[in-house]
Amino acid sequence: MKAIDTIQFNEKGLVPVITQDYSTNQILMMAWMNEEAFALTLKTKKAVYFSRSRKKLWFKGEESGNYQDIVEIFTDCDQDVVLLKVNQKGGIACHTGRANCFFNKLENDQWKCVSKVIKDPKEIYG
Q1: What digits encode the pLDDT tens for the residues 25-76?
Q2: How far apart are CA 36 and CA 25, in angstroms?
Q3: Which of 29, 33, 91, 95 fits a disulfide with 37 by CB distance 3.0 to 4.6 angstroms?
Q4: Residue 73 burial by CB count (10 A; 0-12/13-18/19+): exposed, middle or buried?
Q5: 65: phi > 0 → left, psi -120 to 50 → alpha, else beta; which?
Q6: pTM for this structure?
Q7: Helix residue ranges per DSSP H, 1-126
């Protein structure tokens, strides 16, 4: 049995994916994969996700140049969540121009931005 055959995709054919920086262990982002995205990730050794809003494959870095090279892949005990450990190219994983997508910290019942923009998204995406 192939690894992809054991992944428990949900009723919409998707599995949640947590992406972590291999060298720092920092959580970079959370996204989704369908079977095709998972297969392409295995084949290319680069992160490929499924964009629910655009309803299409999302080759991470195709527009920004901030690719994610796969180092290791894990699943949880139920095989319904995937963990990617990656080398993040360009140091930017978030479309906001930050290192990661988890930059809003809850303090006193208010969200506080705790991460600076590395590069203005207008410079990345136009």
Answers
A1: 999 999 999 999 999 999 999 999 999 999 999 999 999 999 999 999 999 9
A2: 26
A3: 33
A4: middle
A5: left
A6: 0.94
A7: 35-44, 121-125
